[in-house]
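Worked Example 4.2. Consider the chain below.
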Amino acid sequence: MNRSAFYASVRSSLFGGRLTQGQVKGMETILNKWQADGLSDARWLAYMLATAFLETGETMAPVTENLNYSAAGLRRTFPKYFTVAQANAYARQPERIANRAYANRIGNGNEASGDGWRYRGRGLVQITGRANYRTYGMENSPGDALLDAVATRIMFDGMINGRFTGVKLADCFNETTTDWTNARRIINGLDRADDIAGYAKKFHAAILAAA
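Applying the procedure from the previous section yields the following structure tokens:
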């Protein structure tokens, strides 16, 4: 890949005409991992880049889950775990919110254990919960999920091998199928599926232009 051509294309099509050093660094980590792993389907690469673009707010750098919810936000996002009264009591308290919302599931202990906050979402594709951190060898060092190389490795493994939802890249992009929309099910149902499909097509065009 001619990376200068790739960056010139995505700079104009996706990043508003300007790329920061951080954005380039994040994409370089992804491109280097792709090359080192000997992968070849440009659609897979495009969809992973688009996923990182969406999930990180276009920074292309690992992020920590924002849990600073209002009461209304808690009811929309975690309706099973917060009544109206509880949402009012927990609003704008990220640590307390995490400890309640993620208690007693995904490998976490109860609310008092602090596991919800300790194992909150981090990365390019945010992993959440003690069990998932244990899977990736970070139970004792969850902050490692914010390292570029680690976050990229997790994204590749989860999306290629279907570890996040059971759906994997090969289900959506193969010899007979190109499904930019339903590929969102690899991560999180169809939340913002059309948006990410549009981003992925632009990344794909840039990859092909730079081949």
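Residues 3-63+146-209 form one domain. The radius of gyration is 18 Å. Compare this with Example 4.1 before moving on.
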